[in-house]
């Protein structure tokens, strides 16, 4: 599994979200409850950037239609989205956030 450095932990606001690129893949990084989560940065319902949404109660809410996605599983927690978004593995190395797009084997 290959991890790529994407930013510093301090770049991700606590309780907030930022958008980064891992290669050509858009990734939304969320920091909540002392953890950093990585989700595909495209809403499965409306194909807009999730990183422009809001974070609360373990979910990331799409700004356009209000679809919410669980930070750990990427599954929608309510309509209008019905398809999950991919989630990616995150590793913290010192002050750096690393993300892997590889599937676990």
TrEMBL record:
Gene3D superfamilies: Rieske [2Fe-2S] iron-sulphur domain (2.102.10.10). Signal peptide: none annotated. One of its GO terms (molecular function) is 2 iron, 2 sulfur cluster binding. Keywords: 2Fe-2S, Dioxygenase, Iron, Iron-sulfur, Metal-binding, Oxidoreductase. Coiled coil: none annotated. The keyword Oxidoreductase applies. CDD domains: Rieske_RO_ferredoxin. It comes from the Bacteria. Residues 4-99 form the Rieske domain. InterPro entries: Rieske_2Fe-2S (IPR017941), Rieske_2Fe-2S_sf (IPR036922). Pfam families: Rieske (PF00355). The keyword Iron-sulfur applies. This is 3-phenylpropionate/trans-cinnamate dioxygenase ferredoxin subunit.
């Amino acid at each position: 599994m290959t991890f790529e450095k994407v930013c510093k932990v301090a770049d991700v606001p606590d309780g907030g979200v930022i958008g980064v690129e891992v290669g050509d893949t858009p990734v939304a990084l969320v920091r909540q409850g002392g953890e950093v989560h990585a989700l595909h940065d495209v809403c499965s319902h409306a194909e807009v950037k999730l990183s422009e949404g809001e974070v609360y109660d373990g979910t990331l809410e799409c700004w356009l239609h209000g679809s919410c996605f669980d930070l750990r599983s990427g599954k929608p927690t309510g309509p209008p989205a019905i398809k999950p978004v991919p989630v990616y593995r995150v590793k913290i190395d010192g002050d750096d956030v690393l993300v892997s797009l590889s599937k676990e084997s």
